[in-house]
Amino acid sequence: MMAIKIKKVSNCRYLGVIVDDELKWTEHIDYIHSKLLKYTSIFYKLRAIIPNRILLNVYYAFVHPYLLYAVEVYGNTCPTYTN
């Protein structure tokens, strides 16, 4: 039987969640933060054009899933990382 070497990495993406080797979750939180910054600028530009109820629908369609997905896993990390 041949032995297969497994390479150690500092982080890995699994089911959309970036898990790092120290379980600090900073990589994943930074990823979510960068995604949400893009939507913030979009909402800022659309706020005067689209009614609030439509903006709310867009929020629940595109932003809310990023906030909720796997929050049970990384949500209990150190508060300084999530701030």
Walk me through what this model shows.
This protein has 83 residues and is mostly helical. The protein has one domain. It has 5 helices and 2 strands, in the order ββααααα. The protein has a two-stranded antiparallel ribbon. The chain starts with 10 loop residues before the first strand and ends with a helix. The mean pLDDT is 85.
In percent, how helical is the residue content?
A: 40-55%
Strand-residue proportion: 5-15%
**Cα distance spanning the termini:** 49 Å
SSE succession: EEHHHHH
Biggest sheet record: 2 strands, antiparallel
Count structural domains: 1
Average pLDDT confidence is: 85
Low-confidence stretches: none
Rg, alpha carbons: 17 Å
Number of strands: 2
Gross morphology: elongated
How many helical stretches? 5
Largest sheet strand order = 1-2
Helix-strand category: mainly alpha
Explain the layout of strands and helices:
Blueprint: E1 11-14, E2 17-20, H1 26-46, H2 52-62, H3 64-68, H4 71-74, H5 79-82
Antiparallel strand pairs: 1-2
Give the tags:
83 residues, mainly alpha, two-stranded antiparallel sheet, 5 helices
